[in-house]
Amino acid sequence: MIKIAYLADCKSSHTERWINYFKLRGHDVFAITSEINDTISVKQYNLMGGIRMPLTSADSAFRYVFSPVSIHGVRRILADEKPDVVHAHYASHYGFIAALVNYHPMVLTTWGSDILINPDQFRILRYMVKYALKKADLITCDAEHMIKALDELGAIHSKIHLVYFGTDTQKFNPKQRSMGLRARLGAIDSSIIMSLRNLEPIYNIETFVKSVRIVLKKVPKARFVIVGEGSQGVFLRALTKKLKVSKNVNFVGSIPSEEVAKYVASADIYVSTSLSDAGLAASTAEAMACGVPVIITDFGDNKRWVKNGVNGFLFTSKDIESLAEKIIYLLENKEERTRFGIINQAIIEKRLNHRTEMAKMENLYEVLSKR
User: Fold this and answer.
1) For 273, which of 43, 207, 219, 371 could close a Cys bridge (C-beta 3.0–4.6 Å)?
2) Which region among 53-62, 227-236, 315-324, 349-358 has the lowest average model confidence (pLDDT)?
3) 220 CB contacts (<8 Å, ≥6 apart)?
4) Whole domain around residue 340: which residue ranges?
């Protein structure tokens, strides 16, 4: 048994999956976080003493990291708990805190935007990321192209390991499809096109919404379902009204984690309009595992997972016409949707299985804990 301390956002589904996996494996797991998650049944220390700090700018990140509560609090917690491994997620925030606390061995998992976007936005974030990478004993990422970015930021190459976040194929599979849910979404005799990215600028849901009007000209009964919340929620809802497509668009907001598989599997087409992804987005992989054809932006490692006309489609970011064209094609070709979905399910089961990837991580933990 290994005692593992996670420094991470416990409200994130990624963190939840990591914690739950290693707890079920019998390891002693606890978390230090600014976002307590009551659905995770492990000890969680509140990093900010109950104060939630947004992490969307260099200024807020600076205050977050240098809060006496965060630095001294984490140091005290780790001294009391004495974990075998500290595992920080997201380099420019929790990773930098772990680096300052200087508890070893320390694993750092990069998520994508922390190394692909943040270092180029603000000098302070670049410094924070580079320092976290320097202090980490082991670094993991979930995309081939991120390895080059890590090298360029000064990470020691031998410390970098490719460990995918993975998909729980026991949870995400076609059997989760729910006709009852489809009926509630108004899709008894129509198809569902679904987005599961948060309503933030980086995910570019605006492009998804703008494609709706074009699609409805060819397939008037199509239903568009947008799962998630975010800073652009009001704007996007207003946009559907401006475009006169609101009757065909369902904003369902955030949904409980136990409901996600049912929603994903009940879709006929999954769309991701994200402007940036590290590896294959979790929601994209979950849709593929559920046997759903996908249309996603041609960014990062996405072309390693989706081949045009084989198991889905790639399109250029913000290309509304191209997205709409591909949605229409799949709506009008049910046999293709079925074929793509079968291929997708097999790809995730073979290449992106959560249990296989976490087994890799468990082996790395064991090596580190014996140093």
Assistant:
1) 207
2) 53-62
3) none
4) 174-351
